Q: What sequence folds into this?
């Protein structure tokens, strides 16, 4: 499998980059597309469809190609082009009318099992209320624990207004798009790394429903966060008030499983908090420290160690948290470029609103504030 990544900041630049990539006879069958500006959506779909290239697409905001970070305001279109044998993959998209997130994930999983004996899933969700845990649960309900799943939640350059996913024939705000791979032919591997350090005593999620938390240690969730994050004034209409003002995070502790980060997205008028992933009632969590440069160094060490398992790759797709971009500042761009240097393979990715990836223990989990790297490699017959 051959891969190339391209970037365009305008319609003309994107068209030219695609044509140049194909000038040597390279014939991509699939494009992984991360789109910073909705105004370019119709053009991108039309351009790729005309060339008979299948689309796995997502709104992004800040995205990156070949290790270079493209700020969302630049309007950049990033594509990872793959000349993957059509027999080895299929694309599935499910919109809002297909049911709940779990039901949509189950439908996609059934399509994967119908197509391949051992399917692997690259999946992205549109919609600001999506719960990434439901995506994993839906796929594992059908395909079983241990199924390979990588992906994330679509973003919109931290506007928190509209996120969406798309294919050649459909665009959906509240749906899932999935690239399903025949894992007997195409290896989908990778690892998710974080770096946030928990502090203090365990806290109890005393009342919650899914990813909506009402009380923590029997204190209204909003008041708890305001107190510990030092927020005296809070704009209830600003969906970014937590991420921008405090970088407040919780680490969810789970017996027998790897701990995962949970990011507060916004406050409801009743004082409850919507997190990017589930915090089950009765579960325990800890506050975490704001990271610095040492987080990048720790991540690079984990990626270098992982390269020993996966030294030779065809392409890289990175899902890094938008909150990580804010917390790490310029170090986030350095993290992206250094991952590219480790494998020196074609690369694309974006800063998303939640990440799905494999932790060191081997489990595939939904994360916040991590950097999840998906690695593609065609297997030799």
A:
């Amino acid at each position: 499998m051959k891969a190339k990544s391209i970037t365009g900041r305008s319609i003309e630049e994107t068209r030219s980059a695609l044509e140049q990539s194909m000038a040597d006879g390279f014939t991509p069958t699939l494009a992984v597309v991360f789109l910073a500006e909705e105004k370019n959506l119709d053009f991108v779909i039309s351009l790729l469809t005309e060339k008979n290239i299948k689309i796995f697409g997502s709104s992004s905001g800040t995205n990156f190609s070949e290790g270079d970070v493209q700020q969302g305001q630049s309007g950049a279109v990033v594509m990872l082009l793959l000349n993957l044998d059509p027999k080895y993959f299929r694309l599935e998209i499910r919109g809002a009318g297909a049911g709940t997130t779990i039901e949509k994930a189950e439908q996609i999983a059934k399509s994967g099992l119908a197509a391949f004996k051992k399917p692997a899933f690259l999946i992205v969700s549109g919609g600001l209320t999506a719960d990434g845990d439901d995506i994993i649960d839906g796929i594992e309900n059908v395909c079983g624990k241990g199924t390979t799943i990588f992906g994330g939640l679509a973003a919109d350059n931290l506007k928190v207004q509209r996120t969406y996913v798309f294919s050649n024939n459909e665009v959906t705000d509240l749906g899932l798009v999935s690239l399903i791979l025949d894992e007997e032919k195409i290896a989908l591997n990778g690892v998710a790394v974080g770096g946030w350090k928990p502090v203090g005593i365990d806290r109890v999620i005393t009342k919650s429903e899914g990813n909506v938390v009402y009380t923590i240690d029997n204190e209204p969730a909003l008041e708890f966060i305001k107190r510990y994050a030092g927020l005296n004034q809070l704009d209830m209409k600003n969906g970014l008030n937590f991420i921008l003002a405090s970088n407040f995070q919780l680490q969810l502790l789970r017996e027998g499983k790897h701990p995962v980060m949970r990011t507060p997205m916004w406050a409801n008028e009743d004082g409850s908090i919507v997190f990017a992933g589930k915090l089950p009632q009765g579960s325990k969590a800890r506050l975490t420290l704001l990271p610095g440069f040492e987080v990048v160094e720790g991540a690079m060490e984990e990626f270098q160690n992982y390269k020993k398992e996966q030294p030779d790759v065809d392409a890289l797709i990175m899902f890094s948290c938008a909150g990580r971009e804010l917390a790490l500042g310029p170090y986030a761009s350095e993290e992206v470029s250094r991952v590219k240097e480790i494998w020196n393979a074609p690369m694309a990715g974006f800063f998303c609103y939640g990440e799905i990836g494999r932790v060191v223990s081997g489990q595939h989990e939904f994360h916040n504030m991590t950097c999840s790297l998906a690695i593609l490699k065609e297997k030799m017959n």
